[in-house]
Write a sequence for this structure.
């Protein structure tokens, strides 16, 4: 099993859990929870594959993805009941999903020899679109549009990865550093309530 | 004209009517009603075709679909005025659309020799996604996420169809039974307010 | 540089500005403004290209589009601050975007030798879908569903263009007339609060 497919499975798992928690917060029935896990976990990769024309999309061809998602959703429903508050766990799984899938997207772009800017864009789409669908379907304001630095974290992580490859770092190593960077940045940003400068203030 | 294309046209008609009723409930203008009929009727099949890479999508190649939709929308605007309450009629057309399109999706999967699980998933996507778009655009909570058994009905119907084929039932016959099963299940579920067990109750 | 690509760049610019204004109205941070400009400007063309199977979609292959969008977003953030009210400017840019992109879509359909009805539909999709995404993401009711004549303007403009070609008018000339027609129609409709006849009134 390749390094890349491990990252992919971890990302799928992380986003499936985040989708399940969001659905449980809104008290959907078990079936709704599974659908939301599914949509959150495959949303970003599916949009990316549609845009680059790589069809049939991946999860139609691989049973693993579907199994991981269903397992994640069921585990979340089972163990999630014991958690007092979903929000912190949900946030962490979302942050890991963002980091892992950003890297998957950037690497897909590199394989297809797109320009660096487009590779980073594909990373951001892969990393953030599943969460956008999750939030739109549940009538939440998408995380990506809230004040906190979200898509920016994905973009910076993508750029970091390309820079590390540029200085000839071994790719799996560069991946892990960039993923950790994105997760850490998300935690710091939310912990200290950082945001981009407000351009609407007028004295 | 093949059996499959008859089912397809009936499904298109049923969802177009359901889209038109939803739009009229929100008092959209005639043009908005036609757009919503269109989006509801082609939504599921379009997503399915995009996912499996079968493009240009079908309704771009066939004038029949467009004609059926416009006729359905106009008929609904004309006759719908005489109905006191839209909700029951809307519910029935939605149930038939779900049943008919689920079968179309499963059969498309079989043609492309996907695994049984993916065939059922394609059926559910084809059957339910048009309604999801309809509800999202009109700011309703998608039926698929409400407590009532909805996507589950589509999944069970898809499985039933595959089982009937397995025991060598003649395909059009198996189709009709499965479609009737889905419609009947939806009616029973809504009539008797059945739902999946609630996992949020805590004594 | 061809006549068509000039129209395309102008349309991209107009919709990017309209997306940026909408985002600023909702006080998104600078990054959110850029994302919304992007989604609004590429939404219609992307859906069209996905539907006809022309992938990888255009903006993945052309850096120009991305540059124009980012420039438009930054310019809007900079100069937009000096405007008292966004709504009129936003409306005008949206109207120009609708006109310009409708023509791009119709011409794409003609190139692929689709039937006239489908060419007009591709024009309407290209012209209006970016705005639909913009409005859905910001939780506004999509313009296309409001009472004012919007998609109808795009359809009429597309038909006008096909008619002008039919009488052998030089294509760039026919384009400019049709674009102006759509923009003018939008202005008149909004200025004089015109709408399609109301079918819900019952005495």
């Amino acid at each position: 099993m390749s390094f890349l497919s491990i990252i992919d499975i971890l990302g799928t798992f992380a986003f499936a859990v985040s989708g399940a928690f969001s659905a449980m917060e809104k008290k959907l029935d078990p079936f709704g929870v599974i659908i939301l896990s599914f949509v959150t976990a495959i949303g970003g990769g599916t949009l990316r594959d549609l845009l680059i024309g790589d069809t049939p999309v991946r999860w139609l061809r691989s049973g693993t993805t579907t199994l991981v998602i269903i397992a994640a959703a069921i585990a979340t429903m089972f163990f999630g009941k014991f958690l007092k508050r979903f929000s912190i766990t949900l946030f962490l799984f979302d942050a890991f999903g963002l980091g892992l899938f950003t890297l998957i997207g950037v690497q897909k772009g590199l394989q297809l020899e797109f320009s660096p800017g487009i590779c980073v864009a594909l990373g951001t789409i892969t990393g953030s679109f599943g969460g956008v669908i999750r939030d739109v379907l549940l009538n939440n304001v998408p995380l990506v549009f809230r004040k906190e630095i979200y898509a920016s974290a994905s973009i910076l992580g993508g750029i970091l990865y390309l820079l590390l490859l540029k200085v000839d770092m071994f790719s799996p190593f560069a991946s892990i550093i960039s993923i950790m960077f994105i997760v850490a940045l998300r935690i710091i940003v939310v912990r200290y309530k950082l945001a981009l400068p407000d351009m609407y203030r007028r004295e």
Remarks:
- Chain C has a mean pLDDT of 87.
- Chain C touches chain A at residues 24, 27-32, 35-36, 46, 50, 53, 55-57, 60, 63, 66, 77, 81, 136-137, 139 (CB under 8 Å).
- Chain C has one domain: 3-191.
